């Protein structure tokens, strides 16, 4: 194989030379295919690994940190919760239905690969403005794909987020998070162990799906040549996944496995070599044993195929029959394809012929890591958004905000997802700021996913801090205390200094926020090169968080619940208009920087809110986010079906529509609010009453609010 | 026991490779009686007094929802069991399986809006005398989640006496004929509905109204 | 063995009179994409299969491939004209 | 107006090499129902429509009816033999 072929596969000349150096000769086709994937950005994290090492990964409740297929935290009584978020951006930009569906499939496998039963999915989406036909198409099909896959496998989709911003027009983001439940002692690792043990592939047969797909796709900017990459889309089959899931868990239940690993990006190549690397062993694989969907596949194609719904396990030779029996019962066709050796080499055979022979370490660990060369941009990177709102009267601004795509109700999306399967969903979407799921030990967990890319574009450091705080605030409103965090770093081309700067600053923000909250990062994913012809996406670190609450009966609610309750704004809330949703609707350019946040004060406010919710002292709690205070009040009105009488100076736009972390709209009897005021700032702003929002200079009926808030329905005709 | 079920009754809950709701159904049954999962590939109903065909996607729902599942070995036994008068409840996909198997009248078509919808709906008890609703009051409203893409009930020339549950006004999102949510067979021992009573058996998750379906069956199971 | 197999296509569509929301949706979208003069759109299923015995396809449809309460089907074989049980090609049976 | 419309059928199926779990599922269940000698089962979609201008059907398929990334289609008109873009009926285009 030649250097030019290596370059065509996405390697640099220097990397190619490095490969030749490490194996002592030119790689053949199979070896080059394997290297090109394992040394891709997607698998090797070559532009992000050094940064990721700066994130805190320790915590008292940590069970499994980064490095495994999913991270996990302890939720008590022997139970652990596993979770991870992953991107499927490029595949979804090419084929949104299958791209999003297989994104869900992939993250489910990561979770059951460590032995956890997936119990929840959340999805985090970014599209261009819905005025664009392409954005509507992507939205429609991505949501349908997510629903199709998760609903069919029977994992509740309990939350998510979607933003519409012009910079995502050419490059949508589809991130999916999965949460699983496992008894701690049942967790299984992916390290291959035991020389002579057998490698069993089970699940779907192998076709040409995604050959040169995800890895190459995820490592190259999408240009006009998209069409050429199309034939490689992966197709998902959730029915196969469901069988694979049950089969995997049964294999573990019966104690038949030494190691388990899913096949994701780079297929058999990455799954097998990573198992070998972690276990410090070698593997011998015969591609001829791999059940194929298409007869004439080349060994290299078999090694890199990204056919979905496949798993790899290691078992002792004496247990092979039992393993294959369980596979047969679940109709997922298990096949022994190789065994563990002590060579620390990946030896690939086609029958008797050795077609590849690479040191595991060279393949998995030796990819050069690059230093970023960050430079803050001298001029704004992003155009000002288009002006879409002219109104200035508070009522019209409020209705405009409620109808804006980033604020409007997500019901038309989430109703396409089964949020109740499993019978443990205590809070569904729009009932609370975080989803709440009951746990087998009588407690519950809260889950949220968040990340406002526009704020990060304004200020990569503070925007990333805000994403973490927002997620934690959502949990606090549900009464949950964060235990751990996962993240997906969606950025443009890191080889460009300004993108490198965004990435570096955002990771610094994530790390600082996590340290300030004493939260470990349990895992995550990085998606780079998210750029279209028109420039990079907004830098979008998506943060997923899992927290615990002792008693699901006291899970918080967003909606006002009782006429006569006092309404208050609580917390160290210092709103500002620049960078807000209202500023966007008014077409204002992004500010260069966001106000500094007193993270410790926000943390204290979250603790106070959480305690009050857990104690049953608050009727409702909702954090102030996009659209500011008045929008948050309106959302609590709509969620509870109750109006509000407010004493607020609505002419003070900064106060009622400005944004910033640390604010909570709460409702409760006055005495409870006085008690809360002993811990954090609390200002009573009105009373829960009637069927409208009213106050000096403000009147809008619940029906008017509801109609505005329902704006997204029109996108799903 | 809150709903006066009877431990001497035993539910069998079918499990297909793609069932999603069988564990939830099993737990719901276990609240009122004994319950056990029955594997799709086995013909043995293990002495069950009542059968639940749960929701999910049985065999992936390829071709048509429930089309392939009806030919499974366990369904052969269930068909026989039903013909002998045994109580059979089909939920969502299970309802579709029972229609495909000819145990219930009609068929289920794609929702008028084509999309999958997951929503808490109110169901009106039209007939409170059946083996599946004897613990309900006539006209009572049950709040139960519905979640499906193929739930538009269609049965030309349906005997109106067979209608057991109807969607309350404004709650029928799928376009079902006469807003029918659940029907029984003429003999009264087989019942199917699209919404999911097994997800409404615990106040924590929003409603306990689904429990009365299971406790009615447990009650009727003793009587049989 | 010397069995010759035949490629058969089964066309399955919603019975007449049954609301076909998929067909309606396509019909509604086409004009917006610039396609005029389209009517009576119906969306159904296509099953293609190689069979040794073409006479078995009818029973397969009745038993599995179609639900004749809601669907009608017709069978296309390479030699024969379109066949559908009982009736001619333009008024396929239900 | 005197436009004559034509009933056209569009047959859409998974492209070769693309996973077709439906086809596989049907193929697996048929023998169990007593139907032997069936192979290569594929399940796809059927769109039937009346059009004034048959030449528009190809563009409709490209733009809306088929997902040409993963599906291939062929067009059946009453007069003409089956047409599919570029290639003959037995090797429908991808
Ligand atoms: N942004 C991130 N923060 C923390 N950990 C990360 C991040 N991105 C990736 N990781 C960790 O790096 C490892 C490799 O990730 P990935 O290649 O996505 O795994 P997989 O192939 O199992 O999906 C995982 O353990 C993952 O959790
Ligand atoms: Mg993995």
Notes on the protein architecture:
The complex is a heterotetramer, with one copy of chain A (717 residues), one copy of chain B (224 residues) and two copies of chain C (94 residues). With 717 residues, chain A is α+β, with helices and mostly antiparallel strands. Helix content of chain A is 35%, strand content 23%. Among the domains of chain A are: 3-39 and 188-365, PurM-like C-terminal domain (Phosphoribosyl-aminoimidazole Synthetase, Chain A, domain 2), CATH 3.90.650.10; 566-716, PurM-like C-terminal domain (Phosphoribosyl-aminoimidazole Synthetase, Chain A, domain 2), CATH 3.90.650. In chain A, helix 11 runs antiparallel to helix 14. The longest helix of chain A has 21 residues, at 133-153. In chain B, the strands form two sheets. Chain B has a nine-stranded mixed sheet, with helices on both faces. A two-stranded antiparallel ribbon of chain B has the order 5-8. The longest helix of chain B has 13 residues, at 211-223. Chain B is globular and about 40 Å long. Chain C is α+β, with helices and mostly antiparallel strands. Chain C has one domain: Mth169, Chain: A (2-Layer Sandwich), CATH 3.30.1280. Chain C is built from two helices and three strands. Chain C has helices at residues 21-32, 57-65, and strands at residues 6-14, 38-51, 71-76. In chain C, strands 2-1-3 form a three-stranded antiparallel sheet. The longest helix of chain C is centred in the N-terminal third of the chain and has 12 residues, at 21-32. The interface between C and D is large, with 38 and 37 residues. Strand 2 (38-51) of chain C pairs antiparallel with strand 2 of chain D. Magnesium ion binds next to loops of chain A. The site of adenosine-5'-diphosphate has 17 residues of chain A, from strand 3, strand 17 and strand 18.
Number of strands of chain A: 28
Radius of gyration of chain B from the CA trace? 15 Å
* CATH fold title of chain B: Rossmann fold
| Fourth CATH level, the homologous superfamily of the domain at 3-39 and 188-365 in chain A | PurM-like C-terminal domain
Mean pLDDT of chain A: 94
The share of residues in helices of chain B is 10-25%
């Amino acid at each position: 194989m030649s250097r030019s072929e290596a370059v065509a596969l996405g390697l640099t000349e220097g990397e190619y030379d490095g490969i030749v150096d490490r194996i002592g000769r030119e790689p053949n086709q199979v070896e080059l295919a394997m290297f090109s994937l394992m040394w891709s950005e997607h698998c090797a994290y070559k532009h992000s690994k050094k940064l990721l090492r700066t994130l805190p990964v320790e915590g008292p409740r940590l069970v499994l940190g980064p490095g495994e297929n999913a991270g996990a935290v302890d939720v008590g009584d022997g139970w652990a919760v596993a979770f991870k978020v992953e991107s499927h951006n490029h595949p979804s930009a090419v084929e949104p239905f299958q791209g999003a569906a297989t994104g869900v499939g992939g993250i489910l496998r990561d979770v059951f690969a460590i032995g956890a039963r997936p119990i929840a999915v959340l999805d985090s989406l970014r599209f261009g403005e819905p005025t664009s036909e392409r954005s509507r198409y992507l939205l429609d099909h991505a949501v349908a794909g997510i629903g199709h896959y998760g609903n069919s496998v029977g994992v509740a989709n309990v939350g998510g987020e979607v933003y519409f911003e012009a910079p995502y027009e050419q490059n949508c983001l589809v991130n999916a998070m999965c949460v699983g439940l496992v008894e701690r002692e049942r967790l299984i690792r992916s390290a291959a162990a035991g020389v002579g043990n057998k490698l069993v592939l089970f699940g779907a047969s192998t076709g040409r799906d995604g050959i040169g797909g995800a890895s190459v796709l995820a490592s190259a900017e999408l240009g006009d040549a998209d069409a050429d990459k199309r034939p490689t889309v992966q197709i998902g089959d959730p029915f196969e996944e469901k069988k694979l899931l049950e089969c995997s868990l049964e294999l573990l239940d019966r104690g038949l496995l030494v190691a388990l690993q899913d096949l994701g990006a780079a297929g058999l190549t990455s799954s097998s070599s990573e198992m070998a690397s972690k276990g410090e062993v070698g593997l011998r694989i015969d591609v001829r044993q791999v059940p194929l969907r298409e007869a004439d596949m080349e060994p290299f194609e078999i090694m890199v195929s990204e056919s979905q719904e496949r798993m790899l396990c290691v078992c002792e030779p004496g247990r092979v029959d039992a393993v294959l029996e369980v596979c047969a019962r679940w109709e997922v066709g298990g096949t022994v394809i190789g065994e563990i050796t002590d060579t620390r080499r990946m030896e690939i055979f086609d029958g008797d012929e050795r077609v590849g022979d690479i040191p595991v370490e060279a393949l998995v660990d030796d990819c050069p890591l690059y230093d970023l060369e960050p430079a803050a941009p001298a001029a704004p990177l992003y155009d000002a958004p288009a002006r879409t709102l002219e109104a200035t009267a508070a009522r019209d601004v409020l209705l405009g905000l409620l109808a804006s795509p980033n604020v409007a109700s997500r019901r038309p999306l989430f109703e396409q997802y089964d949020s109740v399967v499993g019978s443990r969903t205590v809070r569904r979407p729009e009932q609370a700021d975080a989803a709440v799921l009951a746990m087998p030990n009588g407690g519950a967990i809260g889950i949220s996913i968040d990340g406002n890319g526009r704020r990060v574009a304004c200020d990569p450091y503070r925007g990333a801090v805000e994403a973490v705080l927002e997620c934690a605030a959502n949990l606090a409103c549900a009464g949950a205390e964060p235990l751990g965090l996962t993240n997906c770093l969606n950025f443009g081309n890191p080889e460009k200094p300004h993108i490198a700067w965004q990435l570096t600053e955002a990771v610094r923000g994530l790390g600082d926020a996590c340290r300030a909250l004493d939260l470990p990062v349990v895992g995550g994913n990085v998606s780079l090169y998210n750029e279209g012809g028109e420039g990079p996406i907004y830098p979008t670190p998506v943060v997923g968080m899992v927290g615990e609450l002792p008693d699901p009966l006291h899970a918080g609610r967003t909606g006002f619940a009782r006429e006569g309750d006092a309404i208050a704004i609580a917390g160290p809330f210092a709103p500002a208009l620049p960078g807000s949703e209202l500023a966007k609707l008014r077409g204002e350019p992004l500010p260069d920087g966001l106000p500094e946040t007193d993270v410790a004060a926000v943390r204290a406010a979250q603790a106070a809110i959480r305690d009050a919710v857990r104690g049953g002292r608050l009727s409702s709690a909702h954090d102030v986010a996009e659209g500011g205070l008045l929008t948050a009040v309106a959302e609590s009105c709509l969620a509870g079906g109750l109006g509000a009488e407010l004493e607020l100076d609505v002419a003070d736009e900064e106060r009622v529509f400005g944004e910033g972390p640390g604010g909570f709209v709460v409702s409760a009897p006055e005495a409870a609010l006085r008690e809360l005021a002993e811990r954090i700032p609390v200002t009573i702003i009105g009373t829960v009453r009637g069927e409208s929002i009213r106050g000096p200079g403000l009147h809008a009926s619940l029906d008017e609010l509801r109609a505005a808030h329902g704006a997204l329905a029109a996108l799903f005709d | 026991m809150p709903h006066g079920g009877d431990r001497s009754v035993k539910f069998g809950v079918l499990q297909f490779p793609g069932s999603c709701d069988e564990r939830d159904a099993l737990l719901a049954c276990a609240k009122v009686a004994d319950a056990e999962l029955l594997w799709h590939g086995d013909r043995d109903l293990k002495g069950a007094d009542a059968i639940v065909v749960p929701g999910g996607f049985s065999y992936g729902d390829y071709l048509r929802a429930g089309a392939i599942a009806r030919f499974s070995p366990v369904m052969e036994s269930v068909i026989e069991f039903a013909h002998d008068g045994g109580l059979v409840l089909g939920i969502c996909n299970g309802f579709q399986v029972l229609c495909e198997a000819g145990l219930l009248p009609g068929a289920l078509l794609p929702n008028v809006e084509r999309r999958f919808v997951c929503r808490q709906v109110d169901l009106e008890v039209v007939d409170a005398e059946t083996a599946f609703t004897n613990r309900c009051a006539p006209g009572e409203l049950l709040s139960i989640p519905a979640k499906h893409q193929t739930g538009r009930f269609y049965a030309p020339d349906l005997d109106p006496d067979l209608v057991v549950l109807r969607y309350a006004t404004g709650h029928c999102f799928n376009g079902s004929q006469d807003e029918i949510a659940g029907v029984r067979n003429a003999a009264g021992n087989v019942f199917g509905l699209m919404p999911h009573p097994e997800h409404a058996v615990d106040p924590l998750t929003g409603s306990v109204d689904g429990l009365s379906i299971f406790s009615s069956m447990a009650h009727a199971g003793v009587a049989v | 063995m010397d069995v010759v197999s035949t490629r058969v296509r089964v066309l399955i569509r919603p019975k007449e009179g049954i609301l076909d929301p998929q067909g309606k949706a396509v019909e509604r979208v086409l004009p917006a994409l610039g396609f005029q003069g389209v009517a009576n759109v119906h969306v159904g299923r296509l099953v293609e299969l190689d069979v040794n015995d073409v006479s078995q396809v009818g029973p397969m449809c009745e038993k599995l491939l179609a639900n004749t309460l809601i669907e009608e089907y017709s069978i296309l074989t390479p030699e024969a004209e379109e066949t559908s049980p009982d009736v001619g090609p333009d008024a396929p049976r239900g």
